[in-house]
Amino acid sequence: MPLIDIKDVSRRFGGLAAVSHVNLSIDQGEIHCLIGPNGAGKSTLFKLIIGVYEPSAGTILFDNADITRERPYARVQRGMSIKMQAPSVFKELPVWQNLDIALQQQRSGDDLVMERQRLLELLDLAVHDDKLAGALAHGQQQWLEIGMALALRPRLLLLDEPTAGMSPEETHRTGELIKSLNRDGMTVIVVEHDMAFIRQIAQRVTVLHLGQIFADGTLEQVVSDPRVEEIYLGKAHHV
Ligand code: ADP
Ligand code: MG
What we know:
binds magnesium ion, alpha/beta, 26% strand, four-stranded antiparallel β-sheet, six-stranded mixed β-sheet, 9 helices, binds adenosine-5'-diphosphate, single chain, Rossmann fold
């Protein structure tokens, strides 16, 4: 049974169909990568899944429940969380307090303190816990945001360009972290451009183009499709 089932979902902004008749179901336990050129509709699809936007048409099921019109808060309670593309750490607050803001939704007391410490260590931020989030390196801010998403104990984790601004080594460590979360049972959907990173983590890949699903399959199937090369990889090689 799919964990998330997107059925004929569209989202228009004025005259623009940012997401158009998308059908996508993702199984429990999958690491699923969503790729496609800028403006393809990847971030919009994520915002439809988490409930920042409502679809203009279509249905979204999470764990077989219809969540199409549910508020983001209710979806988080059901077990999903997101790291958005645009940075959203509280830059003027210390690292630990950023985590606490997320942790406080479900924990308190010693339980909260222990989970904070576990996340700080998991994300290599323990030595920086008193630093202002805005003073962290870009990659560390991304990790902090991933930590804030993890603090909500998701079964489904959505990561929109999590490795932007990271060194190759940080990117690789992020991939290993995602794989280890997945081994513990988490379903993860990742939007990324970095093909080495996608190769490291992806179990299945969906290509979005002009708001529509353009290709879907294993990474090998998708990259050997000449149509994909044309719209996405071809372009990427020229940047
Ligand atoms: P991607 O993440 O694949 O780069 P987006 O989902 O951010 O693409 O954007 C898809 C299209 O929808 C783009 O043409 C973008 O300009 C447009 N778009 C996204 N959000 C809005 C919005 N809130 N209002 C109007 N247009 C939007
Ligand atoms: Mg985007």
